Write the structure tokens for this entry.
Amino acid sequence: MLYQDLIRTEQLSAGGRLPPVLPLVLYNGATPWSAAREIGSLIESGPPSLTPYRSQQGYLVLDERRLAAEGRAPARNLSAALFRLEASRSPADVMAIVRQLIDWLQAPEQTSLRRAFAVWFGRVFLPRRLPSVSMPPMTDLFEVQHMLNDGIETWTDQWKKEGLQEGLKQGEARILLRQLSIRFGTLPPEIREKIETADAETLLQWSERILDAESLDDVVH
């Protein structure tokens, strides 16, 4: 669709060609990325004479949590800071990264970046970590810092509680995946994704169906 739009708007190279494109997946899930990384692996093999014409398309995965945990990202880098935030486990970790961002983004020409990070904190990051806390609008990282400072003790307790609940859900998902693999063999990527993103109540219902199930569809539907 991107190429179609470039052709339609006549945004081609001087030689009339399309630009190279890097397909990129930015992933911040709790479990490692497990989907196929090349479309050819999802297509049944045909006659050897058709091999040169088989569709081929790969993509690059940036698995934020794994990159942050491995410590391979550069220290003074905004993308790396975002990855570390996604992988953070406590308000203290978040506070340290916020202080770094404030230090890095002091220049007047970086005002829009400071605002973008603050809005992301208020609308995405903090509501996801603290769903029961009402977040006021924030437009500057200093506001994020003050909010974390004012409620860090209360929020630490709630953060731990939310993290424990999320950990329990991930454990239930891993157990269900293991049980289904033993019963039905290798699981399709779409089934794994469905289980890994299901809520706790749904996981419980699916676990109860395993004993009488004759197929994966009897469990996950």
